[in-house]
Fold this sequence. Notes:
Chain B is built from 8 helices and 17 strands. Chain B is α+β, with helices and mostly antiparallel strands. The interface between B and C is medium-sized, with 21 and 15 residues.
Amino acid sequence: MSYDLIVIGAGPAGMAAATTASTGGAKVLLLDDQSTPGGQIYRAIETAKDAEAAILGDEYMAGQPIVRAFRAQGIDYVPDAVVWQVSEEREVGYSSGGRAKLISAPWVILATGAIERPFPIPGWTLPGVMMAGAAQTLLKSSGVAAEGAIFAGCGPLLYLVARQYLRAGVNIAAVVDTTPKANRMGALPHLPHALLRWDLLAKGRRWISEIRRSGTPLIQNATALKVIGDKAAQSLVYKTADVDWREIKATHIFLHQGIVPNVNLSMAAGLDHSWDNRQLCWRPLTDAWGCSSVSGIAVAGDGAGIGGGLAAEAGGQIAAIGVLSAVGKLDAQASRDQARRPRAQLAHEHHARPFLDAWFRPASDMRVPNEDTTIICRCEELTLKNIRDTIDIGLAGPNQLKSFCRAGMGPCQGRFCGLTVQELIARETKRPAALVGYYRLRPPIKPLRLEELANLAIDDLEGDDAGQDR
Amino acid sequence: MSGAYDAIIIGGGLLGSAIGFGLARQGLGCVILDEGDTAYRAARGNFGLVWVQSKGIGKPVYADWTMGSAELWPGFAQELTERTGIDISYYAPGGIEICLSEAEFDERAQKMASLTGHQNGRFSHQMLDRKAMMERLPGLGPDVVGGSFSPHDGHVGPLFLMRAMQRAFVDLDGVIRTDSRVHAIKRDGDGFSVETPGGTVTGGKVVLAAGLGNKALAPMVNLDQPVYPLKGQVLVTERMAPFLDMPTTHARQTGEGTILIGSSQEDVGFDLSSGPEVIKRIADRARRCFPVLSKARIVRTWAALRVMTPDGIPIYDQSETMPGAFAASCHSGVTLAATHAMTFAKYVADGHLGSELDGLSAGRFDV
Amino acid sequence: MFKRLHPETDDEITFDFEGTSISARPGDSVAAALLVANIDTFRETPVRGRPRGPFCMMGACFDCLMVIDGEANQQACQILVSDGIKVARQLGAAKIINDSETDDEL
């Protein structure tokens, strides 16, 4: 089977890209690591009933038409497929059902979405401490919630999930907000433009007042957090500008301080990335059609820069129109015309973004810890001190650091320490984070069994000299 | 005048770090000029074998040099650990090459015999049949017919080794300058001046230890370093409980528990191809050797560019027209680290290379 | 602790967690089912032997690694429950020899 396009990820960007490309006459394969389409944002949307709709809200239900359109198109779709490699030659390696395959196509769209920003505070590795996104995943896919939990951090998702909990009738011990007060000044210049999306800003205010009305303690301006516990989380202690350490008991603590593009695949594929100082993250360099620096590879959705579900949908459509044009299914004029509507949607979704990014910019003390014993690399269990001791040899950057102390070498491959390590090196060596750089990532971006590699099925890559060594 | 440093080492990989440490421990004031963080580094792809068996077959000079380094290794490892407190995971329980066919076994036996022959009893080995192999290695597969064992072999964490050498170097007041790719080397009185993006560095001696970069640098001091890259692939698993204490050329378990899978750098008959076919073949061979690893999770694969010379053995030279300028190129930066630090660095400090390196000059390529 | 929002629906699946029978629903990940059963600690780390549990629930952090049907290093948040599976905490690094003695992969 030969495809014009392989799409990776079945969130809004991936589904929209696949639907648009397939509608336009391209032969499309979509690979996704979940068992149903939706991505993180619209996870389990197909089975959502009225009860879930009431709890999870309109933002979630907006995924339903996207999934329906995708299903209706009858696209070749492999769920439970873990993509572990995309090469610059567009060889896509994935595992499904214990078998690994390698397949290539003239075009690949990466729609791998976002992950939550690391939140390296003391105790963040204890059982019971999870990301707010994890709480939401449990809510969406299993209708499961933790009674008496704490939500701590900053960013819209924190409030969204807290509100979903309240709507589900689940008590929250407290919401502890770490949004720095000082951010307000920086956000102000972006406010006039953001007012174009007054609806979003109003929605945010509604969430907060809903939380207040519920009687849930809302602590603002928290400047330091620690999770206390020996074998598991027992409480969260926090400090604000006004009060010294206070303790709130809870066995489940959900942390969040924004989401960042999930760049492991795009980096391992060799795409050029740039540091986004506004969103404090790396993003692949893309043109107006989502095309990356590597020929035949485009990126769409939050993986190309955080914009949210509806922006991702538009981005997926635009990238697919670009592919249709590149493979000769659309002429230049038609592709420009067809892209007009999604471009307008994208612009609409981005109006409030600079304001939100500035308002919810996580505090530097929450991004890089100050206590020697705080774990930075969860996999290799390296503390701030371990990493600082390595930096002071006078090393060149994160890759030398990685090789010297194994930070980022565990199975998560830097997803939960990369940004911290980068900013720590920047702080210690007094260099801008952009110049410090990031781990060089290599496939497989997710672990796979030795036997899967040994049995790798290679789908007639233009491997002219295959077998020459035998 | 000789400049600010006694010696400038160009290259901060395993080779440059070993020589730098070796010079600094003799009291020389040194600077290592290193590239940036994303510089290509052979060290990062090193398999970590301290390996004697089959090195220098038919080339006694190299066999002796390798054996000498293996003999220095225990003391070298101890000194590094004492100086830095860094555990470099050095173990020398001997090492095994696994053979998966009678043909492989016979070829191996012949090679080992030849090495033992020209080493005058200095090198010893045993060919092991399947039964003897089962006694030494756990979890071997049915395809394993036998192998060769050498008591001189061992392994070490190559990246911890590099870190320890650099730590020791810095503790001895050595200076490491990163982002210092060298553009030019010029004679400057009795010494040298070396131009980098960050300015000119001057020193009495200069040592070229820049791996593949040596090819372009060597002519600047009237030397020839005809090196070229040779690609090799390595796979690594997640940390596993200890199971394999003896290193083999196809798999070895590191001190932290990960298992490295690949073809070792001493393997002759290098695989010139690359890409998924090669990874598949390496994975298949490892699984045939150790079926118990079938479900082990591979967390990373990487391609390492080895620094190869036309005959596959190292090159060491001092410039005749610019004495004080040295060059070293090799693909066995781990095995030879001990002798680079303890022997070669002495020669550099003394200003002349020992006679055992006579056969390792690039002059051997001139016809 | 975690609870179901719809306790009225029946659990249809049972599986084994270290000798205890756990009930779950179709669509639950192993991680979700264990959390509802009040099990928060899924493994002990290989380096320091510290307890860990699910953290990201989206397959990114690898903190929910468990031994499932005898195979180690499996992400409990990514694997859906099915009837009769055997789940155990992963204590330290994955064992190679003990778990694979009956290997018949070849």
